[in-house]
Amino acid sequence: MSTLDTERPDPAPAQPRLRKRRSRRSTLTRASGVGLGLAVVWFSLLVLIPLAAVVIAAADGGWSTFVNTITDGDTAAAIRLTVAEAALVTVVNVVMGTVIAWVLVRDRFWGKRVLEVVIDLPFALPTIVAGLVLLSLYGPDSPVGVNVVNTRQGIFLALLFVTLPFVVRTVQPVLLELDAEVEEAAASLGASRATIFRRIILPALAPAITAGASLAFARAISEFGSLVLIAGNQPRYTEVASLKILKYIEGDQQAAAASVAVLLLLVAVVVIVVLDIISRRVAARG
Amino acid sequence: MADAIPTPLDAGPTREARRRVRSKRGPLAYVLRTVVVLYLFFLVVWPVSVVVQRAFAPTDGKPGGVGPLWERLTDPAAIYAFNLTLTISFWAVVINTIFGVGISLLLVRHRFPGRRALSVLIDLPMSVSPVVIGLALVLTYSTSLGIFGDVMQATGLRIINSTPGLIMATAFVSLPLVIREVVPVLEEVGEDSETAAKSLGANGWQTFWRITLPTIKWAVVYGVVLSAARAIGEYGAVRIVSRGAEFNGETATLLIQNEYQAFNEAAAYAAAFVLVVLAVLALVVVTVIRPQESHRS
Hints:
Chain A: It is a multi-pass membrane protein. The complex is a heterodimer. Chain A contains 14 helices and no strands. By secondary structure, chain A is an all-alpha fold. Chain A has two domains: 31-60; 62-285, Orthogonal Bundle (MetI-like fold), CATH 1.10.3720. Chain B contains 15 helices and no strands.
């Protein structure tokens, strides 16, 4: 931005000097500079300023108010429940996601292509529909006689549904690229299947699994739509962080809502940083 | 898919040979396959099929089938909800496509201070909770609470509890989708043909319309389909910024919630059925486009 501001009023004579500086710092032409300016303004109005407003609202009452809000009985319980459920769901996803990716890549059977579509379905379905979908089978008039409404198992199930594709979709491409020859070599040298998996396959998949796991964890922490109909919002039992925020907003306690929201924002930022580090490390390794 | 095109990957043992090695399977493979199929069946396939079934099921003594489903969907409240959802999604997708293509070009083709920070920040909307997004917009644009509240009050412009707010919330949640698709393609094709066009005297617009846009065409279409699917299905952020009352800011997803909680499950299942169909349609379109893209590059 600062380059653009100093550039515009500059008259023509300064051109050669400017060129030189530009080639070092930026390659923006006048038109693309204006475009960048517009894009940054829109991005700020839509994303940056509103997110900053959340942080400001949370910081408004000072540090002690913030700490008091998030350590308050019900809120603290909601945060604990959210983290615990998200962690549990992530663990299941790490195992099941890797297994699913493995089956999709290495196994061949009739109907495999259908499974590919099924994996993506939880992404494509609106979250509120995801909740309704699970309720129709595991809800009040369940045809199988299971009712998870207003239970922690219900939250677990909903989170499992919405996070299904993350680990599968990050592990699958890596598994496709994995060279079978290395495994064969290991096998011919007498390595058992377990050894091959532990020493060869797992290390290769580890960055992808970590990336998928962080995405799944972040999604589980912040999930809202699919839980609205299922979780039932019982304080200290089935109330998760996002629903607590909703309750605060509806009770006109915006500052308290912002405090919990800042925690969720922090998780989002940490996950983005982790993913960035992983992708750069993988890129560096080649 | 790409079997016909020889790639560097195919050097050495043929694909077929490799595949044969890989498909050597013991009992473990069958166990894993069964586990995966059962897991997906109980978690996704069966529940989704029950929703479809419920949409056509007889309710309240009325017979089921296509007729009653159509009746529930052509109810004025449902028509209003779907109309609103489509309007919002249309504008959000238009905004995100223009913004997305523009920012992708800037990020890939130009160097400027803050470029890396911008490319990281662009991804932020996807990992922020929808509720937080809604709250963020309220804290910025609401007339009573927002930091721009005075401006809103003075200009008479309403964003929260009105359609512009819904469009902003929807644009926010689907912001990076076009960019994520376009950036890799731009990076891969390089700028040789663009430079060539420019050296032959094409101006910026001509280069964009004749060279750049055709190369990223499928990536843009792909991003648009993903954005549209996400926009139509958005619930959390919309719930916070909208009044969400019948004929007053009730989108299709809010309609599902309201009807379900009002014990009017038939209407909820009917609307959900439409959204399920749209989601599956989007998935199909996306799988059809994908191979085309890999053929081209």
